[in-house]
Request: fold
Amino acid sequence: MKKAIVIGLDGGTFDILGPLMDRGDLPVIKQLMEGGVSGKLRTVIPPGTGPAWSSIVTGLDPSNHGVYDLIVRADDSYNLAFLNASSLRAPTMWDLVGAYGGTVVVLNVPMTFPPREVKGNMVSGLLTPLGSRECTYPPDLLDTILGIDKSYKIVPTQSYTPGRIDSFLEELTDVVRSKSRVLMELLKRNDWKFAMQVFNETDFLQHALWHVIDPEHPRHVKSERERYAEKIFDFYRLMDEIIGKVVEVAGDEASVVILSDHGHGPLHRFIHANNLLLESGFMKVKKNPASRVKYLMFKAGLTPLNVYKAGNALGLGRLRMGMRWTSKGYDMLRRLFFSFSDIDWPQTEAYGISGGVFGGLYVNLKGREPLGAVEPDRYEETRSRLQKVLTRLTRPEGGPLVRQVLRREDVYGGRFKDEAPDMLFLPHDPTLAVFGDFEFSSNSVLEPASEAISAQHRMQGIFIARGEGIKAGDEVQNMSVLDVAPLLLYLMDLPIPDVLDGEFRKDLFEETALGARPPSFCKADEVPGITLGERKSAEDDSIKQRLKGLGYIS
Reply:
């Protein structure tokens, strides 16, 4: 039986793995590269965890699977909501494998909560609410997992704050060890055809601790590097060891793919898009006395981010901005600080929600938004004015602040293109990122990144593949996350649906192998399908709190 296993190192980058391999620290990964193909893996726009992993497992771009971010505007309000598995409206690898009779083991892939029925085993991933027991299929699989390892966690419960590196690294290490034990045991117990495990912990570590190992980072401290750099590299050495053990358990007949959803690199400064919209007149403040007072206090510097910084300066490391994403904390901060509740939406033309490498702006369109202000016949004119404002921004040191401004139709053409941000903009410098909250955590348009995060996503991740017929030691060029699904289907000797956006990359294989077994293609309606509903979202406080601490909400 032809089978394939995918090991995901969320946010993995050759910028870190390469130097470690050069000094002999990652022998397993290096051996896999020498025995197969490898190279940088281009991700989707935006290069976020939700859209990128969704594209990897479907072979479709975000406008054809419906996931653009982990967060969206909640239905009938301007509150933040989180997507779930029903938001991914396309068949996945495990759906296709199951449709053709194969058994799967799928663990901790983002966008899988709540888990759907699969032919095999599934444990949901990032966005699983804290403490939920509805995180596995079949439901009793959770008891089996806790029997294997009672300490099993889907994501760490602890987040990084300055001064707490030891405990942060310790829990990351414990979590990946636990996940690997469960993965290997389930591989042994199942006659599987497709297996996939995503380790988000690589991403969590890099978001938090990049400054420790990067001498060029503005927050770098030499003494901190001397104390912690090797402990950080120990984590990568552990991941290499885990990959070796998993590959051994998977067996020689299994093709192996190691990949990341995006890359990573240093983050120095934040752009706060909603502050820009306020300053340029696209967003208006309510005229009632309470909102005006809160706005004046906001302009004077009373902001959640400043409170967080003050807490750290006073040694209150456990005082986290993340408290705003608990029910009581959020309600309290809405009363104390300037927020979206103080915006005059019927007079507001645009707002920002999506952040990260690309900023996402939405026109407050009448008939689409709850309190839309922009008439449909003014939609294009509003977007043109937004583009002019963005392109005229400059950095304090000189030069443009924004490199590229895109309208959604410049990027997307799929069936869900109307759900994308109306405008996307890319900062000029990759060390700049757009703050991802929809609230006003700062009163600046541009400022240094908070102490809780020192790295952000990049467009190039990692790709390594070894299996029957794959070339040995070749470097692949221009590989996209969209191309992964066609590759996996071929490796498992399954037909490739013709509707996929990804390409089957013949250049990864020896010509003799493709001659002996050419790829087969099928029409989409020939695949035993599943029924997928409308996009759903949830305003879950435990999700918000955990994502805040792990760097997914800035």
Q: What stands out?
A: The radius of gyration is 23 Å. DSSP finds 18 helices and 24 strands in the chain. The CA atoms of residues 275 and 444 lie 7 Å apart.
